[in-house]
Write a structure and sequence with these properties.
13 helices; 2 strands; mainly alpha
């Protein structure tokens, strides 16, 4: 089969996905750009880049940006570390405790409302962090313990999917590579750093990008967990910022902040993708 026919088949197979993505994402986003250059009056008067200028002068926008960045960085680092440790541990367990993998995947399919309800039963009682107050006493009253349940929820919910992906990558490492490294004296962390980590780096980069994307979707859990009260300042992320303008029907400010947020996400993903390519070039 020639390469031309193979490329044509791939193109035909990808057309439905491309059409769906264009219809559901690209076209609405392009139409959204129109609302960023008009005001919120009935006549939608053209005002140029005024919405962008106002947004970049809003201190609440930068506060939300800071909270979003902190949550994404801390959450992704903790999630990737925890997922890697569990994936390595489950590889050694093998099939003896296969049901553990099923339990780890369960959070993905559970309804968000049910998960948050259980989380509220565990950690909230009369507006307090019940578990942390029981373990730490009055020291649990600080802001750190207020936001910790959301970090734990994020890690617990997305660990299972990461373990499946990382576990498959670790299982695909040639046994000859491990045996050669062991003969050279590598073991423990050195074996992981010199053999396992370089060989799973492409998959790991994908998991990092996936985890970063999931960290931006924690708005629902945080909103339901703290409802009907607003979240702490440390969890006042960009989705909360945009939700306020949605409630006030200020769609020009809403679309402007969403467009800026989208470009920031694309920029971060491009940086991660670039880093992954350079890292692979050094290895291979």
């Amino acid at each position: 089969m020639s390469n031309r026919i193979l490329k044509l088949k791939f193109l035909l197979l990808g057309l439905p996905a491309m059409a769906g993505f264009t219809l559901m994402y690209i076209i609405p986003f392009v139409r959204t750009l129109r609302y960023t250059v008009v005001d919120d009056t009935r006549w939608e008067r053209f005002i140029g880049l005024e919405n962008y200028r106002t947004l970049l002068q809003d201190e609440y926008f930068f506060r939300a940006m800071k909270s979003t960045a902190i949550f994404s960085v801390v959450g992704v680092v903790c999630l990737i570390t925890f997922s890697l440790l569990l994936a390595m541990g489950l590889r050694k367990i093998g099939k003896r405790l296969a049901f553990v993998k099923t339990l780890l995947v369960a959070p993905i399919i559970l309804p968000t409302a049910a998960v948050v309800f259980v989380w509220q039963m565990l950690f909230q009682g009369d507006g307090r962090n019940v578990v942390f107050e029981y373990l730490l006493g009055n020291r649990a009253a600080s802001g750190f313990w207020d936001v910790l349940p959301i970090y734990l929820l994020y890690i617990w919910k997305h660990t299972g999917l990461n373990i499946i992906i990382l576990g498959a990558a670790i299982a695909g490492i040639p046994i000859e590579a491990r045996e050669a490294a062991v003969l050279d004296g590598a073991k423990g962390f050195r074996l992981f750093r010199s053999v396992t980590l370089p060989l799973i780096s492409p998959v790991l980069a994908f998991v990092v990008m996936l985890s970063f994307s999931n960290s931006l979707k924690g708005f629902r859990e945080s909103l339901l967990y703290f409802s009907p009260y607003p979240p702490p300042d440390a969890l006042y992320t960009l989705p909360f910022y945009m939700d306020e303008y949605f409630d006030r029907f200020l769609f020009s400010r809403l679309t402007t902040s969403s467009v800026v947020f989208t470009f920031i996400i694309v920029l971060v993903l491009l940086v991660l993708y670039r880093w992954e390519n350079r890292y692979n070039e050094k290895i291979y």
